[in-house]
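Design review, sub-item: ligand-bound model
Attendees: FS, YL, KQ
YL presented the inputs for the fe (iii) ion complex:
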Amino acid sequence: MSGNELEGRERGGVAWGDLIVEGRVSGQLYVDAEIFEAEMERIFHRGWVFVGHESEVASPGEFVTRRLGRAPVVMTRDDAGALRLFSNRCPHRGATICALEGGQSRYFRCPYHAWTFDSAGQLVSLPAEDGYGPSFDRSQFGLAPVPRVDSYRGFVFASWCPDGPTLLEHLGRSAQMIDRLCDLSPVGQIELRAGWLRHRIGANWKLAAENVCDFYHPPVTHASSGLVAGVPATYFSDVSGAVVRDLGGGHGEIDHRPMHARSTPRPAESYQGLRRRHLELLAERDGQVSAAARLQEGPPHGFVFPNLFIAELSIFVIEPVAVGDMTHRQTPIAWVGLPDELNRRNLRSFEGGFGPAGMVEPDDAAVWERLQLGLRAREPAWVVLQRGVGRDVDGVGRLLDETAMRGFWRHYRGLMAAGEATP
Ligand code: FES
Ligand code: FE
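KQ shared the predicted structure:
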């Protein structure tokens, strides 16, 4: 199908089945502003979206501001210790009630006319209240709560839609990745307290989503960092033993466990003492054999649809801004119950990879912007995602295969086409 034919799609509806077929998708999906608007409604408004982690608002009054879809929200903890998620929108005339990235405050005071709300979202004061008349009821003008908020092992997700699948139904098999990450802590918890890097990238959000399980690109895009890190040539190859897995529901992972199971770990000398301590602490809970296996398998690498990347020792979040614009956030995780020195080590390696002078993130960002530019050319019409087609077994492909991307698009097509049927 040519670009012109795609452009000539039915008026009043997108023929999703013509844009997304097994092994290829239309380039229009990355550059069409109407499609982006439909995604915001059908995926980021109706569905579950990752917002943050409970540890970011550990004590009453702590807050962070985020986006849920494109809408600004505030996540905080009230005086009773309950997690709250509100529209960051003053019920009076609409100003955001909080402009900071995060902090601690018992009250949010709107900058326009000083309506003031407590951490439970209640309107607690406003100037010249008597002018609103005797029937004015403060309780009707609190901050609007996001209709559905739920968390899984501290990972907070939310949806603007009051009904639909439960969070556990949404997470499906991707919940196992969160389990694997948390269970590397002796107390089964991670925390996110290091703050976030934010990169504004001139590219469509789905390019970052697809990239999570694209192991075809690292030896090329990240060739220089691979050299510095001494990554063996066989690592990013179909014979490495690692596999790519379509987890269903748009989720996917790169699973290194089969590779690790057949190798002998040789941590750097300086790391061995820390690793031994990690093993001892895990063994107190799991026993020596299970703890050693857990450490050998390591943390997960995978995508939780539509916006969360669990990147081994860090968390990445995609925030769509416009069809060719996103914010990409990253933060290192810390395992609760481990020595500070070990968590600090994670922090330092995170800085080396993803900071402004990092060796990994800038490479990806530069390539995503080139993709966005190139995709503006209408010909050729298609993006090719067919590596491994026909040889996936139960959703599992070889490491360099585009298996998880095809799973992402299958789920995407289902969500978008279902939305099309709704008047
Ligand atoms: Fe917030 Fe008026 S807009 S107090
Ligand atoms: Fe990359």
